[in-house]
Design a protein that fits this description.
The protein has three helices and 21 strands.
Length: about 350
């Protein structure tokens, strides 16, 4: 965020823990925060300005800590001391103990292991953090309250992004999946297969789904009760959101998140017994998914890790053709490794179903 044409501020985080402030116009302006590594000795994983601010920025570290800095304030000559401000499930927030303003202004301890990335919601009110413990945590930034939480299928989460309207959060990580989580409903909407290794980056298309928020389709009684439509001739659902993901498998995958995934029709639960083809199948989203990986839930129940591999939920198989918790298996059903399946490379423009893409069970 730049206030004038004669200044372009840039932040750079270093593997040794320092954060450098540079001005690309005023090239003699440079500051180094955490220079002596008294604040944090671990590598900087992500840095970002607070939305529409001139001075405040956040820096996350491999220690799992997130620090709020003021670019106009100095760092102390000694290691900072902190007072606990608030804490909740899996996080604590501390304020720097000092008679005069100094950096860091706040310290957040989030989850266990590295805090890999964070992102502000489009309205700037909520902060989504993904950690090495496999948890997505969403906070109301000003009040420092936990608004929602989600667990990965397994492994750490590495990247996070908000949809342009702030309704959904997509994450990627060491489970080789992209996961779409509904902020409003607090549940996992879908998981996407396509990568063969860790997913490092995710980003929504800002020009799709941002202008008008999708509405659940209105279902008439006659259509659903008297003459249920044939799923084999149903028209393809309109694209609601699009996003991309990049992984350590060197692949860049593009995804369409459609209304049949976001708002499945309950009356089409019979479609569970059908094998979807291209844009045809629209099975209902099972209740088990909404509870499988979305928190808050009672601690220690183990339910946050999702359903066991031998009980896969059914998903829609529209253009978001790889949305499923587990790929469709052959008669033996013995294979459980999702990363052997690469489905996007064979998707054609005609909507032809790629070999090995998921169908409903």
């Amino acid at each position: 965020f730049t206030a004038a044409a004669d200044t372009i501020a840039l932040l750079v985080g270093f593997s040794a823990g320092q954060v450098q402030y540079l001005d690309l116009v005023k090239k003699d302006t440079s500051k180094l925060f955490n220079e002596e590594r008294l604040i944090d000795k671990t590598k900087v994983t992500f840095v970002k300005w607070l939305p529409e601010t001139e001075r405040l920025f956040l820096a996350s570290h491999a220690s799992g800590h997130l620090y709020l800095y003021d670019a106009e304030q100095p760092c102390g000559a000694a290691a900072p001391q902190y007072n606990l401000l608030t804490q909740g499930e899996g996080f604590s927030v501390f304020a720097c103990k000092s008679k005069t303003p100094r950096n860091p202004l706040l310290k957040w301890a989030v989850g266990e292991g590295a805090l890999n990335e964070f992102a502000f919601s489009p309205d700037g009110r909520s902060l989504a953090c993904v950690s090495q413990d496999g948890c997505l945590r969403v906070f109301h930034f000003d009040s420092m309250l936990l608004q929602g939480m989600m667990k990965s299928y397994f492994g750490g989460l590495l990247c996070v992004c908000w949809s342009p309207d702030g309704r959904y959060v997509v994450t990627g990580g060491e489970d080789d999946l992209v996961t779409v989580w509904s902020f409003a409903e607090g549940r996992v909407v879908a998981r996407g297969h396509g990568h063969k290794s860790w997913v490092n980056a995710v980003a929504f298309d800002p020009f799709t789904g941002a202008a008008q928020a999708p509405q659940p389709p209105e279902l008439s009684g006659g259509e659903e009760e008297d003459e249920p439509p044939d799923p084999l001739v149903r028209r393809s659902p309109a694209v609601t959101y699009r996003f991309g993901s990049a992984g350590q498998d060197t692949q860049f995958c593009l995804w369409d998140l459609t209304e049949d995934v976001l708002y499945p029709r309950p009356s089409l639960s019979r479609a569970r017994t059908l094998t979807g083809s291209g844009d045809s199948g629209v099975p209902g989203l099972p209740r088990s998914l909404s509870r499988s990986n979305s928190l808050p839930q009672p601690a220690g129940t183990g339910s946050a890790r999702g359903p066991p591999p031998d009980v896969p939920p059914a998903f829609s198989v529209g253009r978001f053709a790889t949305l499923t918790l587990q790929e469709r298996k052959g008669p033996s059903g013995s294979e459980k490794e999702h990363k052997r399946y690469h489905s996007l490379g064979n998707i054609s423009r005609s909507g032809e179903k790629p070999p090995g893409s998921a169908g409903s069970r």
